[in-house]
Amino acid sequence: MFRKALLPALLLLLVGPDWVAAADWDPYPVPADPGVGKEWQLLPVSDDFNYSAPAVGKSEEFNSRWRPSFINNWMGPGLTEWNPTYSSVEGGNLVIRVARKPGTQEIYAGCISSHGAFEYPLYMEVCAKVNTLTMASAAWLLSADSTEEIDTLEAYGSDRPDQTWWAERVHISHHVFIRNPFQDYQPLDAGTWYRDGTIWADGFHRYGMYWRDPWHLEYYINGVHVRTVSGESIIDPRGYTNGTGLSKPMHIIMDTEDQDWRSDNGVTPTDAELLDPARNTYLVDWIRMYKPVPKKVLADIETSGQEIQLAFGEGVPFSLVDLVASEQLTVPLANWAAVVTGLQFDEQGMVSVQYPMTKDLEFFALRDAQLGATYATFDWEEHSGDWWVAYNQTETNNGVTMIAGGRTAANDGGDGFGGANGYGFKANYAQDAVDGTLRFELSNQPVQIQLVSINIRAEEGAQPDSVYLEGLANGAVMWTIDPTNDVGFVRYNTATTGSLALPIDEIVWHGPTETAQNPGGTLWDNAIDDITIRVHAP
Q1: DSSP letter at 272?
Q2: For residues 381 and 418, is the Cβ–Cβ distance under 8 A?
Q3: pLDDT digits (tens, 9 = 90+) for 319-356
Q4: Which are the contacts of 240, defined by CB distance < 8 A and separation ≥ 6?
Q5: What is the pLDDT of residues 149-181, one digit of tens each?
Q6: Degrees (nearest 5) of the Cα angle 491, 528, 451?
Q7: d(CA 106, CA 100)
Q8: pLDDT reported for residue 182
């Protein structure tokens, strides 16, 4: 008979509330969604600047996170010359000042950058008061090779009458570069200049950015979601990243700049403005950084002799985890031994496991499944011939086989077997009321997969919302993708509902059918292509 056992250390680890001292940002919940079954974990680089760091020498606490300079030896754009003595921490703020470099037109300015570099998924938010100069007050991310950049805050707060347009706006954008020969892409649509009637230099405001994946950015101001950019067509339409998007680790930078595109046109601070302490100071009250991590789950613990039974709840339905163990809490979780692998939560978010107790003291936790991951991409290039005889096709990549079913056909795109133009095809003949399906096998065994990305071209005709994809696990819908109608192929790497991180065993492709509104109405532009998946080994 099992008996209930109270194991405080083990329970502390499994339930594990994060305890941290109160911070300045605590009243403000993170506005971005961490995803299904995820929660936000604060990163140690987060800083509320509630300490002192003089302009010269700084302090141990400052130096543990920051360097008082740029990420390399570059001294700044235009007339800017970054100087380590123009940043300090005082009065609960990071203080970044500027001043004229004696005998020149150049401007000394403060700049700090993080020692560490950070990868997606990542939420960054600063609470800041920009200066009232024509210079930029900025908080941004930049890769070590300066080819990928994300701008969380870039504001020009001058109170000159001819600068009101800029004072009312915040620039929220990103860049991808080729350094030699130099090429620069950034979105130029009106949405990159956010405006809601605020004069941004008038007070402190919160500027947030969620770097969800290489092809998706979200921007938040004062806790309000104000902009999303998603997909290759706006992240990197010129292919400067060679198909990888914003994927490189990036350093945090907070600085002030006199940028040449403004100073070359005579928009630069006067000596009087630079001397005015009410104008020449950019203040950062705090910066916080988060990663989405799996939510901690609750465990019931029962023991009998030399056996322990752990029953976990509140997990993500159908997600895969490993039970890991360690004799020491100080060992990083990534180095704990996996003692039971490939556990799967059921539809109620429950999973239980029995394990022999062989040690006097042992700690247990759950970790994302580390099963041998195989990636495969299917481009529909293993077919030659007419699409109407190409149902139930298979295609293999990296040892993984994709099996098309229902009314999913293969189209060679006119260039035959092995050509680059193939795609999955679904016309809306009357008989195509049958959905298309995709399943996957590894070593002739069905496998669960995670969809990484897929290109979809949708034509709905007179039936709005009739084209969509569903990811199923044991018949339950884990996610949906509702593609944009009549815009050609678009790459999707996020779900409309649910999360693509959830394992599935089938993709179902819904499409329009022949109706009175589409008499005899064959629609020829419903297609899927370049399906990239991550496979969980059987």
Answers
A1: H
A2: yes
A3: 667 888 888 888 887 788 888 877 777 767 788 888 88
A4: 147, 176, 177, 178, 183, 185
A5: 999 999 999 999 999 999 999 999 999 999 999
A6: 60
A7: 6
A8: 96
Q: Which of 419, 416, 454 is nearest to 530 (CA)?
A: 454
The H-or-E segment that residue 165 falls in is helix 164-167
Assess whether pLDDT exceeds 70 at residue 23: yes
**Enzyme catalytic residues:** 149, 154
SS3 assignment, position 359 = coil
* Secondary structure element (H or E) that encloses residue 116, with its range: strand 111-118
Range in 68-82, 147-161, 276-290, 517-531 with the lowest mean pLDDT: 517-531
pTM confidence score = 0.63
- Tokens standing for 53? 């760091």
Do residues 179 and 170 lie in contact, with contact meaning Cβ atoms separated by under 8 Å?
A: no
DSSP-H helix ranges across 28-78: 60-65
C-alpha distances in Å from residue 21, one per residue of 16, 25, 48: 16, 11, 11
Per the structure block, which two tokens stand in for 457? Answer: 């071209």
How far is the C-alpha of 116 from the C-alpha of 138, rounded, in Å? Answer: 19
Note whether 217 and 211 are within 8 A (CB): yes
Q: Half-sphere exposure (CA, 13 Å, Cβ side) for 117?
A: 13
More confident position, 172 or 491:
172
User: What tokens does 333 get?
Assistant: 């979780």
* Residue 502 half-sphere exposure toward CB, CA atoms < 13 A: 30
Asked if 194 and 226 count as a contact pair (C-beta separation under 8 A), the reply is yes
**Both tokens assigned to 278:** 């009410």
* Residue of 93, 98, 94, 67 whose CA lies nearest to 82: 98
Cis peptide before 181 (omega within 30 of 0): yes
The confidence score (pLDDT) of residue 42 equals 96
| First-to-final CA distance of the chain | 33
